[in-house]
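TA notes. Do not distribute before section.
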Amino acid sequence: MAERIAFLGLGVMGAPMAGHLVKAGYDVTVCNRTAAKADRFVATHGGHRAATPAEAVRGARFVMACVGNDADVRQVALGHEGAFAAMDRGAVFVDHTTTSAVLARELAASAQKTGLGFVDAPVSGGQSGAEGGTLTVMAGGEPAHFAAARPVIDAYARFVKLLGPAGSGQLAKMVNQICIAGLVEALAEGLHFARAVGLDAAAVVDVIAHGAARSWQMENRAATMLEGRFDFGFAVDWMRKDLGYAQDEARRQGAALPVTALVDQLYAEVQAMGGGRWDTSSLIARLTRRSAPGT
């Protein structure tokens, strides 16, 4: 019989990730706060749906979660009809949500007390990476729990690495978001400057993308930034949530993040322009003061 997997959360990331598990031959039971999404998933991909996390995880050796924030994860794991109380002893909970490291350590301790495994495993690669099964996964937890869950994670990931004990995956994701924030603002300013001085910005990108300025953001977002298209990808609201976790952790550790703090406030300006659900590359919109098409 196929191994049973539970997947909690069917948003733009979770749904394609769970879909890859079905394709890989796992017996997948899904649960989502909006039941209609779970119904659509089963109709499209197969598998089963459950009304609550507790119902979804019964008999599952691995439980994967990808929800919204700390409060959402705490609810599906520890809340009424939550996963932890219903999981079999020895089962492993893998949290793909980007959360605080504080929560990851809290859940790891709670899991240990009840004989469960826990791995914090936030992802990078966005919606396209989830759909293509090419996500990068940065993990924290006990090596044995990580090793057991690794074959499941491989169904939707291109690169997976254990970085240390519980919380390490979330800390690594903070590093990822800090780097992205600075890169996107620099790219936005570069493109804005190119236009201001009368250059063909697209032609400039074609040149500098072959040199030291090259980045994933430049290759994948420069063209759409110049077009003013932001109706896709990772939303500003979620980036501000992630940068908030990073800044909270930095304050606890006494680490200065001046550029991160600045870019976070620039994203607040984008939110004030009505761009909370725009892609993070929309930082250029506050420089041009042009609304995205259709907004």
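Switch to the second chain here.
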Amino acid sequence: MQNLRDDRDGQPPSGDWLGTRHIRFERDGALARCTVDRPERRNAMTASMYFAVRYASNLVDRDDSLAGMLLTGVGDVFIPGGDLSWQSDDAWDGISAIAGMDVCPFDALRQAAKPVVAAVNGICQGGGLIIAMLSDVAVVSDRATFRAPELLRGIADTNYAQILPRQIGPSRARDMLFTGRTLSAEEAVDWGLVSRVVPHEELLQVATEVLVQCCRSAPSARADLKRTFDQFYGLYDRIGMTTSLLGAECREGFAAFKEKRNPSWVHPALRTDGRL
């Protein structure tokens, strides 16, 4: 079901309004639920949507009435990454001008003071997979799938190159990044990409129970552990990634995706029908 227009469209975040109608922020007692809801674009993330996840995590951290946040999607898609068509209908003044890594929620999740649990309901790739990995716990549906297709789009995603080997080891990280292979939910848990898989019908219930358990942990002690985890992941080559996003391969990769074809760098003998 397509989202209806909201009279706050075009307005930056304020209170529980996250700055985009495509991500809903709801309260249930001490818990917040952040739902990615853009089914007409398969939950593809605009700059405003990425910023909304960051803002929501910061909002929960500042609100004494909230203990933690659940993040999920609608339909059969969790988060597939950014909208490569650049068809944003929810931009507000300022956000489109800084639509790079500055708007992304990754650092906010790594450093969140209060627990964030991802309930991965379906397709999870690109920025969505990083969000799932950097959430405190990721509970996934048995229907979920996982992929890191950035190299097929011409993107030198150095954030992936930094985080993924520390999550699953360098051999498996190379396999995912260089081939763009898709993992099932069971494979993702086996590889250590995420921690729990449950029947799809039980996803929200189990993820909520996990969030409650996380929220019962001692906040100062938890922050000390998160600081250690953050140091373990380390820093990524942001300058290199920014250069890549402005480069010729990235432009060609985005164009190929939009035109549903293989990028020009694929050897003619190895090309397939449609996009990679």
